[in-house]
Amino acid sequence: MEQAKPLPGYLVQRYHGWKATGYAENEAWYRHLAADGQHPRAMVISCCDSRVHVTSIFGADQGEFFIHRNIANLVPPFAPDGDHHGTSAAVEYAVTVLHVTHLIVLGHSGCGGVKGCIDMCCGNAPELEEDQSFVGRWMDILRPKYELVAQENDPGQQAQQLEKHAVITSLENLMTFPFISERVDKGRLTLHGLWTDIGEGGLECFMPEQKAFRPV
Known about the structure:
The protein has 216 residues and is α/β, with parallel strands linked by helices.
């Protein structure tokens, strides 16, 4: 693989800084994690957005969360068709192998994937309509929910509403997985839907009985 290159200098420096401080000060803990394996209590499905820092939001240590990130924190419906399914594979591993007891979907403000979905639904993103657009076909998961926000005139509110619908869509799709619905019904697994406001540092939780997100 001739295209692979050495790490840029600033990342090398940061690594050595971490090894000399963060690792050195907690070496016993890292060795424990390596020897004993991972035993996370929760899985978090969040967006790839670099501004969403799950471990910082919850003050989590290494080994505490099993984290999967993708565009717009979406979960596709259960589809055992023999194709490649990264998100479904991560969910399956977390639930059936690691036996997590909490499955959290975390959406966020200013989501570029959701913005792309809106643009696509409005006919303003022809490039996302192309069959070869991975982002466009991924956002098709959320596309049916656009009609629920189509009449919102404020662009910011429309985006925020669809961001929250992305969380709800993922929760709905998670329940189509038999190994998830079975555990939920037996009280062995709980699902949680969250949305965070990056600029304000706010966190809201979806409350099914109210069909709305409420501040934590």
